[in-house]
Amino acid sequence: MGTDDKKHVLSEFKNYKAILVVFMCNHCPYVQAKTKALNEIYDKFKNDIMIIGINSNDPTNYPDDSFENMKKFAKEKGIKFTYLVDETQGIAKKYGAVCTPDPFLFDQERKLVFHGRIDNAMSPEDTATEKTMIDNIEKLLSGKKIEKDFDPSMGCSIKWKSQQT
Q: What is the pTM of this model?
């Protein structure tokens, strides 16, 4: 379910040249610091790539990450891309996502071509001097190889649901 109150399926994005999936949440200061950069990516490439934000955090222990608060966060931050909730946390587990933000860039065949940072600002108060994701999207769209396909990002850990015994 998206903050637009619609259910989304991956096949609806088949006409895009790439998909950027970003595991994110509302309360993480790293995510809050990257929303402007994500909106910049959206504005620059909206005709060629689809950005999908996914919140997999457990709202039971982190109420700031509830679906209602996702809607508020999206409005406050001016999020223009699709922002979905992963209630079961199955999507995050399937992707192997570990933190927020945790970006995965896929090509048109939906092959993972880059897993890593949005830019080189590694703490929320840093200013980016290199736009890693924009550079990699430009390479992908121009048919160039992304040499470094993994460049770990920094962020808060995904807040997993407690295991019931």
A: 0.94
Handedness of CA 91, 93, 96, 100 (dihedral sign): positive
The CATH number for 116's domain is 3.40.30.10
Print the domain residue range for 129.
16-157
Residue 165 belongs to a domain = no
Tell me if 57 sits within 8 A of 158, measured CB to CB.
Answer: yes
By the 10 Å C-beta count (0-12 exposed, 13-18 middle, 19+ buried), 61 is classed as exposed
Provide the angle, in degrees to the nearest 10, between the axes of the packed helices 67-77 and 29-45. 60
What is the C-alpha to C-alpha distance for residues 40 and 101, in angstroms, rounded to an integer? 15
Residue 54 lies in a domain: yes
User: Domain for residue 1, yes or no?
Assistant: no
Number of domains, the chain: 1
Q: What is the pLDDT of residues 104-156, one digit of tens each?
A: 999 999 999 999 999 999 888 999 999 999 999 999 999 999 999 998 888 99
Nearest to 26 by CA among 61, 78, 92, 74: 74
Tell me how far apart the alpha carbons of residues 135 and 159 are, in angstroms, rounded to a whole number. Answer: 30
Q: Is residue 116 part of a domain?
A: yes
